[in-house]
């Protein structure tokens, strides 16, 4: 049975727009709602992220598993140790989620209007007939006016949501790369005494990297970030599929659908993207060398880091630290999507 609350939302949003201008005026909502998504994600997810990064980047024998990593971190550094490097994502995730979710909304609209010729791009809308490959081919052959003239609403299919995810992931990578680079270097500082750490904080880290390596050093790992975030195809494609299924098969409220679909689709994303994230973290924590004095650089290219992981630990090496990441994925992203969709509904 469909959710009455979500159905009401769908009816309000699914009416075919008379022009594209009013639709484009609502694009701001995604950027505003993304700020609240970033705050929710950081609050719930950062301790899990710290453990994940430490397991991904340290030598094999340092921690026996996630639980020991947590206990050793708290024992040696206190609870604050779990929130090391939280300042960059506190600012960064607010900004990144604003750009990512805002651009996602724009790309959904552009794909719906110009490629798939759909009147609605709301996730979970429609009857769920097909993934959208046929619709894409038909849309590329026909003109926008040929389908938009239909009185019945048409919907952006899962393929369209997935493609929008790729575009949004690539867009936000130019913001995410330096933020995640600084965060990763701060997270692998194990000394409890600040005087023994190479970087006193995010500003100091950014300043030292820029001084010795310039903008290129700050954006170290950009290509790896784009590869990782292109996997947003699976996140937003599955979010549409799960949202639609829950709307049709359950009687739960729209916020509950956002929560469950957000958490489950995030886990789908991490199942498909985790190896690329691990390679990205290896690159971002690799010494930059030169005047920075942090050691000898090991991975000049993405391929070198990927091969090194396999040589060290085989295929299992690509999944090191996966458990805390997988445990984090559901609550952090479920809360983030709940916040995002809630704000989207409340904005005019």
TrEMBL record:
It comes from the Eukaryota. Residues 1-26 are annotated as: Disordered. SUPFAM superfamilies: Mitochondrial carrier. The chain crosses the membrane at residues 217-237, 257-274. The keyword Repeat applies. It is found in: Mitochondrion inner membrane. Pfam families: Mito_carr (PF00153). GO terms for cellular component: mitochondrial inner membrane. InterPro entries: MCP (IPR002067), MCP_dom_sf (IPR023395), MCP_transmembrane (IPR018108), Mitochondrial_Carrier (IPR050567). GO terms for biological process: mitochondrial L-ornithine transmembrane transport. Keywords: Membrane, Mitochondrion, Mitochondrion inner membrane, Repeat, Transmembrane, Transmembrane helix, Transport. Its main location: mitochondrion. It is a multi-pass membrane protein. Gene3D superfamilies: Mitochondrial carrier domain (1.50.40.10). Solcar repeats lie at residues 25-110, 156-245, 253-346. GO terms for molecular function: L-ornithine transmembrane transporter activity. Belongs to the mitochondrial carrier (TC 2.A.29) family. This is Mitochondrial carrier protein, putative. It comes from Metarhizium acridum (strain CQMa 102). The lineage of its organism: Eukaryota, Fungi, Dikarya, Ascomycota, Pezizomycotina.
């Amino acid at each position: 049975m469909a959710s009455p609350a979500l159905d009401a939302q769908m009816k309000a949003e699914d009416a075919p727009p008379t022009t594209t201008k009013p639709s484009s005026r609502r694009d701001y909502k995604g950027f505003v709602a993304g700020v609240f998504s970033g705050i929710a994600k950081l609050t719930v997810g950062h301790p899990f992220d710290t453990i994940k990064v430490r397991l991904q980047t340290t030598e094999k024998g340092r921690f026996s598993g996630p639980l020991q990593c947590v206990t050793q971190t708290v024992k040696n550094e206190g609870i604050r140790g779990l929130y090391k490097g939280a300042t960059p994502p506190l600012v960064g995730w607010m900004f990144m989620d604003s750009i990512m979710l805002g651009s996602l909304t724009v790309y959904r609209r552009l794909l719906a209007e110009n490629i798939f010729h759909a009147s609605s791009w709301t996730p979970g809308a429609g009857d769920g007939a097909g993934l959208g490959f046929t619709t894409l081919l038909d849309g590329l052959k026909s003109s926008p006016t040929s389908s938009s003239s239909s009185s019945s609403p048409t919907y952006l299919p899962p393929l369209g949501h997935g493609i929008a995810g790729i575009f949004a992931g690539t867009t936000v990578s130019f913001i995410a790369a330096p933020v995640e680079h600084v965060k990763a270097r701060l997270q692998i500082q194990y000394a409890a005494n600040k005087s023994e750490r190479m970087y006193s904080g995010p500003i100091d880290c950014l300043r030292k990297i820029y001084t010795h390596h310039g903008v290129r050093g700050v954006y170290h790992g950009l290509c790896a970030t784009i590869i990782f975030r292109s996997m947003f195809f699976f996140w937003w494609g599955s979010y549409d599929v799960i949202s639609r299924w829950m709307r049709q098969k359950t009687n739960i409220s729209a916020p509950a659908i956002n929560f469950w679909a957000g958490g489950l689709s995030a886990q789908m994303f991490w199942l498909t993207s985790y190896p690329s994230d691990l390679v990205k973290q290896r690159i971002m924590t690799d010494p930059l060398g030169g005047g920075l004095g942090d050691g000898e650089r090991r991975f000049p290219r993405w391929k070198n880091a990927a091969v090194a992981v396999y040589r060290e630990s085989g295929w299992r090496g690509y999944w090191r630290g996966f458990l805390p990441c997988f445990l984090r994925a559901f609550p952090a992203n479920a809360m983030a999507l709940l916040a995002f969709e809630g704000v989207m509904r409340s904005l005019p």
